[in-house]
Structure formats: C-alpha cells, structure tokens
Amino acid sequence: MATIIINRTSEYLNRLRNFGVYIDGIKVGTIANGETKEFNVSAGQHSVFIKIDWCNSPTLSVNINDQETKNLKVGGFKNGRWLIQTGLVIIVLSYLANLLFDFEYFFYLAIPMLLIIVYYTTVGSKQYLRLTENKSEQPKTMALH
C-alpha cells in the first residue's frame, strides 16, 4: 500500500478551522493546524486538493508507486501569515499618528491588505491554500559501489 503524508503548517490566519483533504475527489479526512496525517492509497496517479469553506488549493497530481511515500505540505496563501500582524501594526500606528501628529491618512495603508484578503476569498479562492510536494522529506536511496 502506498502512503500520502500531508503536513499542515501552523499558522494564525486559519488556526481554528480544519482543512478537508480530498483524494481523487473524495473527502478522506480533515487536518488541523500544525497536524500531520497519513492516508493510504493504491499505487498509481491520484489527484489531491485541500479545501476550507468555499476556498481550496489547486489540485496536485501525485504519481505514487506501491510501498512508496509522498510527503505533501499545505498552508495558507503566500505571505498570508504576515497579513494579520501587519494589519494590527498599521492600525496601532494609524491611531498613534492621529493622536500625536493629527495625521489621519495613515490608516489607508491597510487598504492593500484588505484587497488581498478580498481577492483570495473571492476570485482567487482556488489559490487560497498552497499544496506542494515536499521533496526534501522524500526517502533517499543509497547507491552501493
């Protein structure tokens, strides 16, 4: 039996929600924040994607041999982990700039972050999650001389 191992990164943005794991269009389980799960599959070609609410990852095609293990990694969209922290910093700086210098326009720096979130939850919903093959964790074979 072949095995697909999925490692979910630990992130703040989707911390409280589980991702649905789909192999060949069938939901085979869920994966929590920072969790690693194994799924047994038959040898051959499989399509894998991860879904959360109406958003998901692009479908990843995995060709796996019998007794082989493929390691996949899933996480939120690129640089999504910095979005919340950066937004909070901008809001605090905006408040301080308004309080200390009577500067009211600093808050507008948060608009690009808002637009990024709107994009990934609407038009870019098929790229909200990233699913990649983690080649660094594939078993290595040694050549005998």
At CATH's second level, what is the architecture of one domain? Sandwich
**CATH fold category name of one domain:** Immunoglobulin-like
Structural class: alpha+beta
Q: What's the mean pLDDT score?
A: 84
Name of the CATH first level of one domain: Mainly Beta
Low-confidence stretches: 138-145
**Helix-residue proportion:** 10-25%
Radius of gyration: 20 Å
Q: Assess the beta-strand content as a share of residues.
A: 35-45%
| Approximate shape | elongated
* SSE run: EEEEEEEEHHE
- What's the total helix number? 2
- Whole-Å distance between the termini? 30 Å
Q: How would you characterize the largest beta sheet? A: 5 strands, antiparallel
- Strand tally is 9
CATH superfamily grouping of one domain: Immunoglobulins
List keywords for this structure.
145 residues, alpha+beta, Immunoglobulin-like, five-stranded antiparallel beta sheet, four-stranded mixed beta sheet, disordered C terminus
Sequence-ordered SSE layout with sheet pairings:
Layout: E1 2-8, E2 19-23, E3 26-31, E4 36-41, E5 44-52, E6 55-56, E7 60-64, E8 69-76, H1 83-101, H2 111-121, E9 129-133
Parallel strand pairs: 1-8
Antiparallel strand pairs: 1-4, 2-3, 2-5, 5-6, 5-7, 8-9
Please characterize this protein's 3D structure.
This protein is of the alpha+beta class and 145 residues long. The protein has a domain at 2-75 and 131-136: Immunoglobulin-like (Sandwich), CATH 2.60.40. 21% of the residues lie in helices and 37% in strands. The chain contains 2 helices and 9 strands, in the order E-E-E-E-E-E-E-E-H-H-E. Strands 2, 3, 5, 6 and 7 form a 5-stranded antiparallel sheet that branches. The chain has a 4-stranded mixed sheet with strand order 4-1-8-9, with no helix packed on it. A hairpin with a 2-residue loop joins strand 5 (44-52) and strand 6. It is elongated.
